[in-house]
Amino acid sequence: AERTYIMVKPDGVQRGLVGDIIGRFEKRGFKLIALKLVHATREHLEDHYGDLKGKPFFPGLINYMASGPVVAMVWEGLDAVKTGRSMLGATNPLASAPGTIRGDYALAVGRNICHGSDSVENAEKEIKLWFPEGIVQYSHDLAPWIFE
Ligand code: GTP
Ligand code: MG
């Protein structure tokens, strides 16, 4: 099954949105396969956002992401990458639809609460980067109620 890396950013943790965000993914039908609270180093965050090095907002992005712990998660299920992104909403909350996480809780692109992998390939990279220890295996008894 497809996997995606979803992260509650430091503002989402501080604002008490962790439970809500986890609940949305659970209720949508995704399976939680990894979860931890981590205060990431700048080096780790620079790796995670390596594609954005050189952007004018990059230093501010790293400061923001290093400002407190994040909740790192892996969710598994049908089209997890694309559906995960649609649940987060557009990058800039100005354009995020109501009903999405960013559209419900965020106003500024530099404080947009959550991260989601943008492709299956990047999801695999991000899962290795954030969970080098590997991922627990367990069966999900609800699967026949969620997948054809
Ligand atoms: P992530 O899920 O966090 O990767 O966001 P994204 O994939 O929707 O956007 P992208 O990867 O292009 O940018 C990563 C993060 O950098 C965004 O989520 C924002 O927090 C931040 N960011 C992107 N563009 C801007 C910008 O123009 N200004 C500022 N201040 N931050 C930005
Ligand atoms: Mg991105």
Note down, in words, how this protein is organized.
By secondary structure, the protein is of the alpha+beta class. The chain is built from 8 helices and 4 strands. Strands 2-3-1-4 form a 4-stranded antiparallel beta sheet. It is globular and about 45 Å long. The mean pLDDT is 97. It is an enzyme of class 2 (transferase). GO terms for molecular function: ATP binding; nucleoside diphosphate kinase activity. The active site is at residue 115. Pfam families: NDK (PF00334). Its cofactor is Mg(2+).
- Mean pLDDT score: 97
Ligand names:
guanosine-5'-triphosphate, magnesium ion
Radius of gyration using CA atoms only: 15 Å
Note the quaternary state here.
Answer: single chain
Helical fraction equals 40-55%
Indicate the proportion of strand residues: 15-25%
The global form is globular
Number of DSSP E strands: 4
| First and last CA, distance | 13 Å
